[in-house]
Amino acid sequence: MKKLTIKNFDVDITGFGDDDYYSLTKLAKIVNPEEPKDVIKHWMRSKTTISFLGLWEQLNNPNFKGTEFGPLFVEAGSNSFTMSPTKWIKTVNAIGIRTITQKGGGSFAHKDIALEFASWISPEIKLLLIKEIQRLKAEENKRLDWAGKRQLSSLNYLLQTDAIK
User: Fold this and answer.
1) How far is residue 59's CA from residue 122's CA, in Å, rounded to a whole number?
2) Could you give the percent of the chain with pLDDT greater than 90?
3) Nearest to residue 68, comparing CAs of 54, 80, 82, 56?
4) Could you read off the pLDDT of 66-86 as tens digits, one per residue?
5) According to the 3-state scheme, what is the secondary structure of 87-109?
6) At what angle do helices 36-45 and 24-31 cross, to 10 degrees?
7) Beta carbons of 122 and 31 less than 8 angstroms apart
8) Gap between the Cα atoms of 8 and 17, Å rounded
9) Which member of 20, 23, 94, 129 lies 3.0 to 4.6 Å from 12 by CB, making a disulfide possible if both were Cys?
10) pLDDT of 95-136, one tens digit each?
11) The dihedral sign for the CA sequence 144, 98, 43, 77
12) CB 6 within 8 Å of CB 127
């Protein structure tokens, strides 16, 4: 698992498919170290959040249960409405948010959703997350550039030795 650091908190990053998913649980701990699950649940109660999550799933998930989404959207934001990552995943067959139950687990979200969550927490957290993502990508690109040059050099050597024979 990769990590990035925001305000002295390590935020885990894990891969699902080809995408990185960021720990919502660790992001929530920045503002509420004792009850990060509550922060996530409060965010997921909002009609704006449910609308965003539904749109993201519609655009990225061919197995999204749109008929199950409708009633959630209507109820979202009301005083009696509650939502958790697990309930969201089960109800609409979501892929943008994932939960991991073993050690080091929690709720993880695709970077689009993690940025939306960070923005809800605070503009500062969102900006710090963006900067950390950019830093990580720059580091990955440097490693890829070095590895790519090495592979190209090896390929050139092989081509030259085959051409000589």
Assistant:
1) 26
2) 64
3) 54
4) 999 999 999 999 999 999 999
5) HHHHHHCCCCEEEECCCCCEEEE
6) 100
7) yes
8) 28
9) 23
10) 999 999 888 789 999 999 999 999 999 999 999 999 988 888
11) positive
12) no
pLDDT of residue 2: 82
Percent of the chain with pLDDT over 70: 86
